[in-house]
Amino acid sequence: MENSKKLYRSRTDRKIGGVCGGLAQYFNIDPTLVRLLFVLGVIFVGGGLLAYLIMLIVVPEEPL
């Protein structure tokens, strides 16, 4: 049986919508690093905010 990881928005490690916390759990990295990458994406690329909003809508919240 295959044990596949699933991406969820975090219920416990959230500042706004749990997207960065969920990505950090999925990739097993520090959530602060993910938040920093999103902020840098907003400042330098401009797509960080759009990516965050899309993930906020598309990625389901972590089950209880």
Q: What is the number of helical segments per DSSP (H or I, 4+ residues)?
A: 3
Distance between the termini: 23 Å
Average pLDDT, all residues: 88
Radius of gyration: 12 Å
Strand-residue fraction?
under 5%
Q: What's the total count of β strands?
A: 0
Q: What class do helices, strands and sheet pairing give?
A: mainly alpha
C-alpha geometry = globular
Q: Secondary-structure element order, as H and E?
A: HHH
Low-confidence stretches: none
Largest sheet: none
Helical content band: 40-55%
Task: Describe the protein's architecture and organization.
- This protein is mainly α and 64 residues long.
- 55% of the residues lie in helices and 0% in strands.
Give a short synopsis of this structure.
This protein has helices spanning 19-27, 31-45, 48-58. It has 64 residues and is mainly α.
Helix-strand layout with pairing:
Blueprint: H1 19-27, H2 31-45, H3 48-58
Helix pairs in contact: 1-2
Q: Main attributes?
A:
single chain; 64 residues; mainly alpha; 3 helices; 55% helix; 0% strand; globular
